[in-house]
Amino acid sequence: MAAIVWKGFVSFGLVTFPVRLFAAARAEHVQFHMLHRKDLSRVKEVWYCAEENKPIDRGEIVKGYEASKGEYVVVDDEELKQIAPATATTMEILQFVRDGEVDPIYFESSYYVASEGTAPKPYQLFTQALEQTKYHAIGKLAMHGREHIVLIRPRDGGMVLHTLFYPNELHEANRATGKPAKLPAKEMELAKSLVQHLASPFKPSTFHDSYRENVERLIRQKQKGQKISVVAKSKRAPVIDMMEALKRSLATTSTRSAQTKARKGVAKKSKRTAA
Description:
275 residues; alpha+beta; seven-stranded mixed β-barrel
């Protein structure tokens, strides 16, 4: 059973209903363990006291905030619970915004919002109101040691919640700046044609993590004592003639598109013949 990330209430005007949050996604990667090179035994993490120059048990550890150099304010978990805001148990809806109004750069983590207990009607009322008005809800929610601004949107008859970054957490200094350049009309037309040739419905299932697959293959080959399959890295020369590069890209894309359509046609024909 999926672990509950947060459990509480959604406050929508005078309507309040219980919900649970479940993680909507998690990055998958190959898990490596740290080993001692000499005998390949597992290396364990040790909590160490620098003052006493000796290892200590986890039970001896407390949280401390460094107020000044070498000076700490100790805070325990019970004190943190006592000062937690009301949003730790009740998600307060602050406003509603148009679908697509919030820039995705603000999105941090995603969660499924499930109805809790026997209150499906208020949950469905809220969900369908979002669906029919094409609005998303903005609220506040405290979890994981901080208060989040969140966006709730309808999805497939239910709801998804996204925690949002605060403006000061966005690294605006890293953003590319400058005025758009005026480009030659012919180059612009070729670039738009290339976009249109590559345009297709987004199908997440067609994408896969090549790096993870390569790591898993590497592990299998080492287990069997086989030679490692080295992945060749393609070298790309810098673009000098933009028009020529766009023309070649368009030609390559057109050829691939024709080949893909031909393969699909053969597959459909084979199915009809088999039937």
